[in-house]
Specification:
Layout lengths: L37 H6 L1 H10 L1 H16 L3 H7 L1 E3 L2 E3 L2 H29 L1 H20 L4 H27 L7 H25 L7 H8 L3 H8 L8 H6 L3 H12 L5 H18 L14 H19 L2 H6 L1 H7 L5 H23 L4 H23 L4 H14 L25 H11 L6 H27 L11 H18 L8 H9 L13 H16 L1
Antiparallel strand pairs: 1-2
């Protein structure tokens, strides 16, 4: 029977530097070592470089999901694929649904098969397959002349970059040092926003081209990221967790060393990862912890629910409206030069995302997400209220607030006394970035890829529902709600804030072995931060005593 007392399994190969564990209380590092510092980041810049490289496919994710909204503001694209309604060219709601469905299906299928493929052939080979599929889909889109051809190209491209989007956070979470895990995982969203901004820049820069080249060139430029990643395939380290599960411990040590550098404590990292894998195996009654159903059972089920709810909250607070339809809404609302405004908006969101870098490993995941969601929910109510006013000044206010919604003032979510608009909405600096830290570090090592795949499939299904309804709510030939659509998102966002406040735990600075103990002991979410993982400390000291005796 599995041991549920909280004691960790025997750890083999722990570093003999006993002093590094003498002060380990409540799972915290030794005094003076409990905060991520600029010096530590600078010493581990190699880690950040690998993260940026592994996250090249998420650049395509951001590029692709924002493409349709921006192309619907490009006249040649509207002339080829759209129709005229009341003197304006628009893409029919059904055609928008078809194109949005390509992204939905591609992401859903890629999330499902990523877990299966990567568990069979490894993370590196899965990334190679994703790059090849992405390149093929991009070329297909470039030569498209009908909506259905575009649909086919988008489906294949999304399937490919979806493999990288689903795999990237898991890959990095298995390689990054505990202290830098948060900032490393937030870089996923940085690359997504970078892709959105590059898309805006490319479409803006293509305005001077003739005819269909105005929308074909922005599509074909997506080929750069997967091509670069494919070229560096042979240099990528493999996932240490996957190698340990396969019994290839020596190769796991080499992967840790290649990713983190020669000064990294490889023995300790391998020992902790191996112990976490063994602990998860002990928890399962049947021993079949890699089964998909295990992701919904007991503590693993709680982990899956936490991740899914965090990602679903991205949909309930209206990110598909603010991000995906930003430029299109500007044009429908009569804003001059919507492409330029959209470009500026995504540039601001990129800066907002960078604000999360120093905060995620200092302030923690829980306060950033919880109070960020509360601020964004309040912002939805404000934007929707202003949307009921039909005046030029109200329109200007809506445009400004939609841009601010994607950016955070440096003091806003953590200072209740901050007045006015600066305390309004902080998507890119809060939920947009930190959700990836939750997604990468919450699952157990054995079930990490499957749990994250379930999360992506759930979030994609929710996004699909939103995207299928969105054209009917926004289009001028349908309900034409405009900014009043924020009232609908507000109604769903309030209960999500309540769930996150009571159920989202703080996992900053915890090793995967500590997290396994806390979830197995069913520690309440609001007590995670102060919980003492004495089982881990005792196990490591005991192992070192045995080594000294030998």
């Amino acid at each position: 029977m599995a041991d549920t007392t909280g004691a960790a399994p025997k750890v083999e190969g722990v570093s003999e530097k006993r002093g590094s564990f003498e002060h380990m209380e409540a799972g915290t590092p030794p005094p003076g070592d409990n905060q991520l510092t600029w010096k530590y980041v600078k010493e581990n810049k190699r880690v950040l470089a690998w993260c940026f490289y592994i996250f090249l496919l998420p650049v395509n994710f951001g590029y692709e999901i924002s493409t349709l909204g921006k192309l619907m503001a490009v006249i040649p694209f509207l002339e080829r694929f759209g129709r005229e309604v009341d003197g304006k060219m628009v893409i029919a709601a059904t055609d928008q649904q078809i194109l949005n469905a390509a992204n939905t299906i591609g992401l859903f299928v890629s999330a499902f098969i990523t877990g299966w493929i990567s568990d069979k052939i490894g993370r590196k080979n899965t990334i190679m397959i994703g790059c090849m599929a992405c390149i093929g889909g991009i070329i297909w889109q470039y030569f498209s002349t009908t909506i259905m051809m575009l649909w086919g190209g988008k489906l294949l491209a999304t399937l490919g970059m979806g493999l990288g989007h689903s795999l990237g956070p898991v890959f990095v979470a298995e390689l990054a040092p505990t202290k830098m895990r948060g900032i490393c995982l937030t870089l996923v969203n940085t690359m997504i926003v970078l892709g959105q901004w590059l898309n805006a820049l490319c479409i803006m820069g293509s305005k001077s081209l003739d005819g269909d080249q105005q929308w074909r060139i922005p599509l074909i430029t997506q080929i750069i990221s997967p091509s670069l990643l494919l070229c560096g395939y042979f240099f990528l380290p493999e996932s240490p967790s996957w190698l340990i599960i396969k019994g290839r411990t020596e190769e796991a040590a080499k992967s840790f060393r290649r990713f983190n550098g020669p000064n990294f404590n490889v023995d300790e990292a391998v020992a902790v990862t191996k112990a976490a894998v063994e602990a998860e195996a002990e928890v399962s009654r049947s021993g079949a912890v890699t089964d998909w159903l295990q992701c919904f059972k007991g503590p693993d089920g709680r982990r899956t629910l936490i991740i899914c709810m965090v990602y679903i909250s991205q949909q309930t607070i209206g990110v598909n409206f603010i991000s995906g339809y930003l430029t299109y809404y500007f044009r429908l609302a009569g804003v001059n030069d919507p492409l330029a405004i959209g470009q500026a908006a995504f540039a601001i969101q990129l800066v907002g995302n960078m604000v999360s870098w120093p905060l995620v490993d200092r302030i923690g995941r829980r306060p950033i997400i919880v109070y960020g969601c509360i601020g964004m929910t309040a912002g939805l109510l404000l934007i929707g209220g202003i949307g009921t006013l039909n005046s030029p000044s109200a329109l200007n206010a809506i445009v400004a607030l939609m841009v601010i919604w994607g950016f955070t003032a440096s003091s806003s979510p953590f200072s209740p006394s901050t007045p006015g608009i600066s305390n309004l909405n902080q998507y890119q600096a809060t939920l947009g970035a930190v959700a990836y830290a939750i997604g990468g570090e919450t699952p157990s090592p054995v079930l990490r890829q499957k749990t994250y795949a379930i999360n992506i499939m759930t979030a994609t299904a929710m996004s699909c529902m939103v995207l299928q309804v969105m054209p009917y709510l926004i289009n001028t030939d349908e309900l034409n709600l405009g900014a009043k659509i924020c009232f609908i998102f507000f109604a769903f966002s309030v209960p999500m804030c309540v769930y996150l406040y009571f159920c989202l735990p703080e996992m900053k600075g915890r090793t995967y072995l500590e997290l396994q103990e806390m979830f197995q002991n069913r520690v309440p979410a609001r007590k995670f931060r102060a919980y003492k993982c004495v089982g881990i400390e005792g196990t490591m000291h005991k192992e070192e005593d045995i080594k000294e005796e030998k």
